[in-house]
Predict the structure.
Amino acid sequence: MTEIRILKDAEQVVFYPKTHLAAVEGLQVASSQADGLLQAADKVKLDGIQAGAERNNVTAEEKNRWDAKQEAILVSPNGQRFKLQVTDDGKLEAVPAAE
C-alpha cells in the first residue's frame, strides 16, 4: 500500500491536492448496472428523480385537509377563544370564535 503523506506548504499549512476521477485507480462512475462512486441500486433511484423534485411524504388526503384548514384558534388566559384572520388589506385581526 502507498504511504499516506500529509502535504504542507512553506508555512507548514496542510493542503490537499486537487484530483479527479481518472487519478484514482479502480474508481468508476456508477451506472444502473455497475457500482462505482455509489451503488448501482442508488444510481437507479437517483436517475428516477425528476429535475426540481422535492421530497414529500405527505399523502394527498393530508394535504387536502391542511389546505382546507385556514383558521387559527387562539385561547386567551381566561379561556375565551379567538379566531385569527387576515383582512383583505393584509392586516391580522382576532375575532371571537364561534363555539
User: Anything to note?
Assistant: The longest strand covers residues 81-86.
